[in-house]
Each structure stands twice: as structure tokens, then as C-alpha cells.
Amino acid sequence: MIKKNTASTDRALSLARAGRESADEASWQAQKSALTRTQIIEATIRCFIEHGYSQTTTTLIAEKAGLSRGAMLHHFPSKLAVVSAAVEYLHAKRLRAFRKAVSKPPVVRDHLRQSLDAYWAQVRHPMFVAFFELAVAARTDKELAAILRPAQESFEREWYQAAVEVFPEWEGRGVKFDVALDLVRYVLEGMAISLLTHKETERDEHVLEYLDDKIHELAGLPKPQ
Fold first, then answer.
1. Given 79, 97, 118, 134, which residue has the most CB atoms within 10 angstroms?
2. How far apart are CA 22 and CA 41, in angstroms?
3. Burial of 183 (0-12, 13-18, 19+ CB in 10 A)
4. Residue 3: pLDDT above 70?
């Protein structure tokens, strides 16, 4: 009787160990798959920056990611599939960077100017070049536009909500807050686009100073001396 119980216990322990090992293996495989997907997405974004959207192919992406084309297609069966994932990744990364930058305590200047400088740095980042490349390509590519437009609308909603949360000094300013956000976005993104073909000069700083003045006026706050 004791031997029978011991055998049953051993089998139960063996099954439990096998179950844990199977779960660990599944977890490891899931982590490995996620890392590979991120590797492919980041390689895709580098392709957009270095080669442009039209020249980006699944073969080029796989090469940039250090994978075989078959391995890449296992995770993303088409170029549009990986483009869709790359757009989502780009937007999430931009949103995190925006929140992190504007949430830091002011060091030298006030919160408004610090946030202005933070967004200016963000739109000059290569990630913005990738986004701009996609935006231009979507003008004549209906499949890409079908991916990019709803994703951009979603990003803008989240970006606006993030701005409401991190700029308490704008509470009660109503439409002036919306105007300030749009003014900063349109001016800085336009300036960043111009830098794709022009060098940055002191004229850019003059525009930033003027924009800073107008933002403070809209906020009804004095600029720190």
C-alpha cells in the first residue's frame, strides 16, 4: 500500500515538474517571439529612414534585422503587416517620449519653454523622419493611408489627453489651450520638415523665442526673467 502511494506521488511530482517546464518553455518562447518582433519593427523603421518607404521591402527588412526572409515572414506575413506594427510602435514611442520630457521638473526655464524645447527635440529625432516618410508615401498609397490615418487619429487623441494631464497650468483656458497645442505642433513639425533640406540656423531659435512668447500670452502667464 505504501509502495503504491509512493508511486502515485512520484507520478504526480513528475507531472507537476513537466507542467512547470512546459510553462517555462512557453514563456521563454513568447519572450523570444516578442523580442524578434521588436527587432523586425525597429529594422523596418531604420529602412524607412535610410531607404524610404518605396524602397523598403521584406527582403531588405529581414537583412537589416539580421534574419532570413522566411523567419521575418513567420512573424509578419507581408510588408503591410509589418508597416502596421511599425506605425503603432512609432506612435507609442513618441507618446512615451513626450510624456517623459514634459513631466520632468523645470531645470532652468519654466515648464512651458521646457516643453517647447522637448517637442522641438522630438520632431528632429530620426523617428519623426520615419513618420514623415510614411505620411508623404500615404498621399498616393491607398493601402498605407488606410493604416496611417486611423493610427494618426488615435495618436492625436492620446497626445491631446496626455497634454491635458501634464499641463495643469492651462486649466480653465478653454480654446486657448487647443490653439496653443496646434500652434506648437504645426510650427515645430513644419520647421523639422524644412531641416530635411536646410541646415539649422539662428533663425530657428528666433522662431522658437517668438513661439514661446505667444504660448505664454495664450496661457496668460508671464515669462520668467
1. 134
2. 28
3. middle
4. no
